[in-house]
């Protein structure tokens, strides 16, 4: 979760939808046991992670570099334990911190997925350009729902009912 902070979110068009999609992704990650990490860009000036996401990112890493890779200590020590080589990114701004983070992780050989409906920029054209550039660079751009169903894999999965409930709850609140 990259820089979903109070003052940054306030400048994003359709901010409520963006935060809701980030929250859905985080809730789904929790259901499927996918680790969640987060960053805050210059929190003294830009505020902290929005309250809707703070329970999922209780200890976000402060950063000044636009890329989150260094702030999150990449590659992580846990990589040796479980061999994870994929990252799913959400946050803001798509054309700055999300883009530079993804490019760094792609250069390190990671498979990078960007939740296209859970990233934003102040200017929609910047967001769109970033998503095109990320796709061209080798990142997979997908919707939050698509990512969650890929994690689930089958309606026979124990997590499927929980996922269905999360999706229905979000549809009601949208």
From TrEMBL:
Highest taxon of the lineage: Bacteria
InterPro entries (UniProt xref): Isochorismatase-like_dom (IPR000868), Isochorismatase-like_sf (IPR036380), Isochorismatase_domain (IPR050993)
A Pfam family recorded for this sequence: Isochorismatase
Species in which this protein is naturally found: Schlesneria paludicola
Protein name: Isochorismatase family protein
Domain Isochorismatase-like, first and last residues per copy: 1-145
């Amino acid at each position: 979760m990259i820089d979903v902070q109070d003052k940054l979110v306030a400048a994003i068009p359709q901010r409520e939808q963006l935060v809701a999609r980030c929250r859905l992704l985080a809730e789904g990650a929790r259901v499927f046991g996918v680790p969640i990490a987060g960053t805050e860009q210059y929190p003294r000036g830009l505020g902290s992670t929005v309250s809707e996401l703070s329970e999922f990112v209780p200890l976000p890493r402060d950063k000044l570099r636009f890329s989150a890779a260094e702030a999150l200590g990449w590659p992580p020590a846990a990589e040796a334990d479980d061999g994870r080589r994929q990252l799913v990114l959400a946050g803001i701004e798509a054309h700055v911190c999300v883009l530079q983070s993804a490019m760094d992780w792609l250069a390190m050989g990671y498979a990078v997925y960007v939740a296209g409906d859970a990233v934003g920029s102040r200017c929609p054209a910047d967001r769109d350009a970033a998503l095109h550039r990320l796709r061209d660079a080798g990142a997979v751009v997908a919707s939050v729902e698509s990512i969650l169903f890929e994690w689930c894999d089958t309606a026979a999965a124990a997590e499927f009912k929980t996922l269905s409930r999360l999706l229905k709850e979000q549809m009601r609140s949208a």
